[in-house]
Amino acid sequence: MDLADINRRMQGAVASLKSELSGLRTGRASISLVEPIMVEAYGSHMPLNQVATISIPEPRMISVQVWDRSMSQAVDRAIRESNLGLNPIAEGQLLRIPIPELNAERRQELVKVAHKYTEQARVAVRHVRRDALDLLKREEKDGGMSEDEQKKTAEQIQKMTDSTISEIDTLLATKEGEITQV
Asked: Is the pTM here over 0.85, yes or no?
């Protein structure tokens, strides 16, 4: 029974949640908001950060400096079609993206999405726990470990699960605070 592997799998769920939460718009500019946007470039789809430099010159503005002038329109189109509600202002190779203020209704929708992502992460952690406990029972049944060892290891797995779910809840509370903050 490899407890480090179980912990690694649980932390994978946390990392995935962090990634999903970073993509939720909070009314403030964030590079992670536009990084996942894919741009049609040179006959293939490429992430935005591989065709341009992204920066935050102001708290509510994202600046995208396109490296190749011929790619400016493709980048502009990709940002507009990303369903993030962003409208870039083109100035040659520089695109300025103002981050609009969130209204109360949109904030509530984002909180619901954050809760959905968090629940998915909790379920993933519980699946890891279930798989580990099933493996433990099989090992005990096959005579690979004593009942005491099995119970001790099961307690360690439960502590790991509780700790990881607590970390997930903290991430949700932080993100909820960012979204609802006016």
From this structure: no
